[in-house]
Amino acid sequence: MLEQCTVKKIKRDIAYVEIRRSDKCDGCKICAFNKRNSITVPALCDMPVEVGQTVTVEMPTKSVGSAALLIYALPLLGILIGAIIGLCGEWWLQLIIAAVGMALGLVLVVPIERMYRKKSGVLPVVIQTGENHTIENGEHNGT
To answer: What residue ranges do the domains of the chain occupy?
Structure first.
């Protein structure tokens, strides 16, 4: 899916773009707008862009379920491993070790999820710059 976005910030090869909610967003829910009209998301960008510039961004459609599974499963796995390790002690020791396992899982989710997004194609990608390009039915004109 292609979206027109505004560049809000640039950091190395990542452009942080503001996506405005459209009618297409109601069925998708990938961007998690909730009650907001716009969100700012990171997008891979291998072309020169400037803050405030309008760009065309291709939204990912694959691997979103895998990313969600990773985010939820890693802390649960930490709890499970902690609980199993704690089996050799008292119940309170098992509870403490399980809590430490969950905390460790939550801490590890952030860097692992960032690496996963960059490598698996889950990040949106800037494919065009400028305001004079048109988008019709999910197709885009070449630059």
So the answer is: 2-60+123-138, 65-116
